[in-house]
Amino acid sequence: xxxxxxxxxxxxxxxxxxxGAVLLCSPLLVFNSSARAxxxxxxxxxxxxxNYTFPATxxxxxxxxxxxxxxxxxxxxxxxxxxxxxxxxxxxxxxxVANFLRDRYAKRRPDVVLxxxxxxxxxxxxxxxxxxxxxxxxxIGISREVYEASRPPPDVTGHLVDSESNFDQMLALAExxxxxxxxxxxxxxxxxxxxxxxxxxRRVIDRRARKFETxxxxxxxxxxxxxxxxxxxxxxxxxxxxxxxxxxxxxxVPAEVAATLAGISKAPVYYPYFSALGNGVVGGYNExxxxxxxxxxxxVREILDGKDPATIPARTNPERGYRVDYRALQRWRLSDxxxxxxxxxxxxxxxxxxxxxxxxxxxxxxxALQTLFVAALLIQRRRRQHVETLLTESEERMxxxxxxxxxxxxxxxxxxxELWATEHCRALFGLREDVELTRxxxxxxxxxEDRDAAAFALRxxxxxxxxxxxxxxxxxxxxxxxxxxxxxxxxxSDGEVPHLFNGIFVDITEQKAAEAEAGxxxxxVAHLMRVSVLGELSxxxxxxxxxxxxxxxxxxxxxxxxLAKDSPDLAEVRDALNDIVHEDNRAGEVIQRLRGLLKxxxxxxxxxxxxxxxxxxxSLLRSELIARGISVETELDGSLPETFGDPVQLQQxxxxxxxxxMDAMIATPAAERCIAVSTKSAxxxxxxVRVKDHGxxxxxxxxxxxxxxxxxxxxxxxxxxxxxxxxILQAHGGxxxxxxxxxxxxVALLTLPASEMLIAAQ
Length: 762
Known about the structure:
Layout: E1 3-4, E2 10-13, E3 16-20, E4 42-48, H1 55-69, E5 76-82, H2 93-104, E6 112-116, H3 120-131, E7 137-143, H4 144-150, E8 156-161, H5 163-177, E9 183-187, H6 192-207, E10 213-217, H7 222-230, E11 237-240, H8 254-264, E12 269-270, E13 283-286, H9 289-304, E14 315-316, E15 321-325, H10 326-331, E16 344-346, H11 357-397, E17 407-413, E18 418-421, H12 424-428, H13 439-444, H14 448-460, E19 467-474, E20 482-490, E21 500-507, H15 509-536, H16 538-563, H17 570-598, E22 606-608, H18 610-620, H19 622-628, E23 631-635, E24 643-645, H20 647-664, E25 674-681, E26 687-692, H21 700-703, H22 721-731, E27 735-740, E28 746-752, H23 755-761
Parallel strand pairs: 1-5, 4-5, 4-6, 6-7, 7-8, 8-14, 9-10, 9-11, 11-12, 15-16, 23-25
Antiparallel strand pairs: 2-3, 13-15, 17-18, 17-21, 19-20, 20-21, 22-24, 25-26, 26-28, 27-28
Helix pairs in contact: 1-9, 2-3, 5-6, 11-15, 16-17, 16-19, 18-20, 20-22
């Protein structure tokens, strides 16, 4: 199992905190090695150049973790250390850190070293032989200048940041947004990374065709920098680069400095990194730190898959691009119409109401409906969990003790017929204080229908150390009916039949109420789904009813015409009236079937002929099938035994399966649209219904989730149809399976126990 070890160690040398170690992110894998067992974990050591307070550090680590966790099947252990090379720059710090890493990983050698950000690469190249000799190194977020100046060996590669290109594109963005600007202010600190940015900025600005009146705010203290920025005119361009350290030697988080400068500047502030976007700066040309992490992780995966790191060149990330903050554009009155194509704009409000009103309303309605379903389920689940927690804690903490909330303790001696019980049992069963607590008085307080079950449970506990549980209803004079759970167990009696029983009485009225409420909610959801399906079929149903009504009208007019003759032909009149009666019955049958599907109420279990139910359902769908150009082939077993269940609920399942089959063939050529329906008796005695379509079938990832609530492959489906069908079938003792047919399309197999099986089970 992949493990992630996060811990922070502090080594105090000369009263200076030298380093803090860790928390990170991603399991990685290492080389394929025949010397290791197949299930041995691969180890990766992640070194952060800065400390954990830098947002970039965490973001890059998150991106690498996501890519590696979901991209490898190997076992991985990850260790991470924060070098903190900026804050602790005094002589000897690097050597102390190198010695710490050497001692710490002497017996835990990594397979890959992953370096995140700036100053980490020079440190690793200088001290790698001390703590990870010969181990490949992958770096993230290293500038091309640092990489080329370091002249790394062949087994060092990774993700490069093209600082010159990023700065040049960022300045171009500022020119597009501020075409009239003539003054340019560039800000950078005094740290090594800051000074590299200084050099890059000067080089790019000097070679550009357009010349600005440029002011470089370099090598200043933080307070002096704030004062200078506050005086910059509003029509200038301000580019804030990194400020890791100021002239006074104080360390900073660059993204926080950029946000502060943007807050006090009268002119728009641009920043080359994504981390400050959304905190006041306009934006720049960059990549997200998560994308940097993913790019570095991809290289690590190549090495772990066995590729020679010397053959993997250092490369930049293709995910770079323009990114700006809409709120910053609004603040400085910059027009987003001047942005280059493909710019990512964050925090821009979207108003699609006027353009897509119907779609928005539909989405809101669907969301509200789903929210209601989820809220109802969560409330029910919360109540149930609350009750179960109370019961569990009571049983574990106060078993056979003298007091608990809504729990009564008892002991019964079968030989002497003596019962001992706590006084709380009297309250549970609603017995007055003057009534003696005996076996008979407690049984007398139980509903007559439940009394035999309670007595039977007590007699059943005859084997030592075995427990039994029975829920009973109690009739109390001081209130409504309460539910009490009786839990009991026996004690061994030297090999004899046990006669001493201990147990508890627990009030579970709230739990039963929650279960009853959940049952009502499930019925409401099932009824809603039936109404939804009939709503989809409203046009077809109207056509199905309109046909007999049209026939009735035609025959009635014919009869009137015949009767208007001087010598009417009574035989023809009789035939017309018989046709009216026939068509009236036909319309009545359609309406009767609709009434059955639309009605709400208690389940009505009865003997059912599945063949008749299938024929009735297909009749209801006849017009819809014709409208979609779908034919139906039936092969119904004439000797099919009856099953037992609720005909409305079972017809709801058939409706859902037929509708799914029709929807699956939307892209099927008209000549091939066919639904095959068959029934047969299974060898086990159950009844099977098979519904096959000629659609495109299901993808493997869809097939594994089709019965999950709220999962759907339809554009406007709720994802509840098959989940409700499964729940209904479980209540009927049946099951539903949905698989792809090798010949094409999908097959739904519905299995229900025959009436004989149910009788035998009872």
